[in-house]
């Protein structure tokens, strides 16, 4: 769903499994603070996202580079100054075409659910 792929009942089974595991252990399975962080955790625990999903997903380019690396836009100085302000109250800034976009590349840490 995050990547914009078609989905069916299988996603509900995945969600149910995650919820049951969290209820049983008392821990959040994929602790994160962003969608990119979530994707990185899932990849680190389960493994790479299948190629067909990367090709099919309409939203893949929002989270992955063409090389398949997870990225997220780095906050600029104005956004960092407004970090204590509710997002709905932050000033919006339009990027011009010549402005350089700064990003962070997230590297999935290989781990297990243990």
Q: So, CATH architecture? A: Orthogonal Bundle
Named CATH topology:
Transferase(Phosphotransferase), domain 1
The CATH C-level name is Mainly Alpha
Beta-strand share of residues: 5-15%
Helix content: 25-40%
Instruction: Assign the structural class, choosing from mainly alpha, mainly beta, alpha/beta, alpha+beta, or little secondary structure.
Output: mainly alpha
* Number of beta-strand segments: 2
Mean pLDDT: 83
Q: Looking at this structure, what is the CATH superfamily?
A: Transferase(Phosphotransferase) domain 1
Summarize the SSE layout with pairings.
Blueprint: H1 9-25, H2 35-46, H3 51-56, E1 70-73, H4 77-81, E2 103-106
Antiparallel strand pairs: 1-2
Concise synopsis of the structure shown:
By secondary structure, the protein is mainly α.
Q: Can you describe this structure?
A:
This protein is mainly alpha-helical and 114 residues long. It has a single domain, classed as Transferase(Phosphotransferase), domain 1, CATH 1.10.510. 35% of the residues lie in helices and 7% in strands. A two-stranded antiparallel ribbon has the order 1-2. The longest helix has 17 residues, at 9-25. It is globular and about 50 Å long.
Annotation keywords:
single chain; mainly alpha; 114 residues; 4 helices; two-stranded antiparallel ribbon; Transferase(Phosphotransferase), domain 1
């Amino acid at each position: 769903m995050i990547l914009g792929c078609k989905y069916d009942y299988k996603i509900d089974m995945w969600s149910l499994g995650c919820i049951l595991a969290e209820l049983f252990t008392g821990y959040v399975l994929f602790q994160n603070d962003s969608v990119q962080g979530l994707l990185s955790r899932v990849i680190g625990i389960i493994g790479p996202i299948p190629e067909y999903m990367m090709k099919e997903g309409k939203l893949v380019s929002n989270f992955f580079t063409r090389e398949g690396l997870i990225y997220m836009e780095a906050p600029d100085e104005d956004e960092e100054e407004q970090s204590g302000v509710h997002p709905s109250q932050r000033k919006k800034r339009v990027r011009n075409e010549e402005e350089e976009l700064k990003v962070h590349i997230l590297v999935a840490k290989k781990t297990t659910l243990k």
